[in-house]
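P.,

For your records, the input lines for the assembly:
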Amino acid sequence: SELNKNYKLKALVTAGPTNEYIDPVRFITNKSSGKQGYALAKAFAKKGFQTTLISGPTNLEVGNNINLIKVETADEMFKAAQNNLPTDVAIFSAAVADFKVKEISNSKIKKQEKLNLELEKNIDILNYVSKHNSLRPKLVIGFAAETNNIEENAKKKLDEKNCDWIIANDVSNKAIGFDSSFNEVSIYYRDKNMDDERLTIKSKSEISDEIVDRVIKRLN
Ligand code: PMT
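Structure tokens returned:
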């Protein structure tokens, strides 16, 4: 059966936001709910993949047969990814904070008129993995959350981050993207023989099934 054919295949998915602490009670985060990534993990597990889901903080229930690794910061997400790669396929749907606080205060910062925070760049997990000799999965898929010039920006990320595919979504549209149960995506392929594809608005679960179908086709 198809399940038996896939059961040896391993998938890794990143999902959700990351929290970057300022002090013990405050952090910088972003708008991801984790819905898209959890739906992808569910879709992989349903098709028999050994599935690892590395998730930032979310309120979501995880599906059956998924190895859930909960993390909070980008650094923790990065370590978890290193510990669980390579796989056959990895999809990076997490909205990782691009910056972390350079010096995290050990105690709660007192109220004051002004507070300057120095931020430094977080590691780009997708970029690191896709350019790593031994950790890189056969198939590396990134997401691109864009608000404008979607195709151009997504193709730039495809190239610069050495992805095989990039899945772009428009996060300026409230009906889709962050926190919605729906999405609409464009898939761009590195392989010039493959035409770009558009999956029009449907549930994140249906979008995930269609992505996983394409992954299976590509891996078999
Ligand atoms: O979680 P939901 O509410 O369901 O919303 C889903 C989503 C909109 C968050 C999701 O579909 C999505 O687009 N995820 C990627 C969000 C993002 O941060 O995109 P980006 O364009 O900044 O990053 C590009 C790619 O690099 C992504 O695959 C991202 O996971 C990866 N990245 C980025 C920064 C970083 N430090 N490490 C990374 O791995």
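Two observations worth noting. Residues 14, 32-36, 74, 92-96, 98, 122, 124-126, 142-145, 157, 169, 171, 177-179 surround PMT (CB under 6 Å). The chain has one domain: 2-107+116-219.

Regards
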